[in-house]
Amino acid sequence: MSKTTAAPAEFEPEFIAGLKTIFEEKIVFNQVLGLQVVSLRPERVVARIDMRPELVGHYAYNRLHGGVISAGLDAMGGLAVMAAIGARHMDEAPAQRLLRFAKLGTIDLRIDYLRPGIGSHFELRAEVLRLGSRVASTRMEFFGPDGQLMSAGAAAYIVS
What we know:
Pfam families: 4HBT
Oligomer: single chain
Organism: Paenacidovorax monticola
Order of helices and strands: HHEEHHEEEE
Structural class: alpha+beta
Number of strands: 6
Strand order of the largest sheet: 1-2-4-5-6-3
CATH topology: Thiol Ester Dehydrase, Chain A
Number of domains: 1
Shape: globular
Family: Belongs to the thioesterase PaaI family.
Helix content: 25-40%
Protein name: Thioesterase family protein
GO molecular function: fatty acyl-CoA hydrolase activity
Number of helices: 4
Radius of gyration: 16 Å
């Protein structure tokens, strides 16, 4: 006997627009990083950062600063948790679900830098491994313009 799993629900345009506004405009540090949401699905989120001079480390010209990579991956883990919480509460109106993110915060973060952050733009992906009632665990990835994995991360977030 095979077990079937229901496909994750699709988000309403109102929820997607609201979450993008929170992530790209209301979180000022994400504005500084230039994080732009590319895809927002319950099971995975994707964003992009374009290389800009102010994101480069002072000691390494044309290399994205490791702090930018870390902050970007942390933000993506948080966005993945927001999407997972939004998917968990699809019975609520989109505006009501958007109010659930006020207490979200990072409690643990690990980043593995695999290659230098060289390129014109970068893609960041994140997914939730487990969404509990108080803590969520995530996995994040940072790719160069050629699709090569440059950094990977894991994090835990408080969701109460």
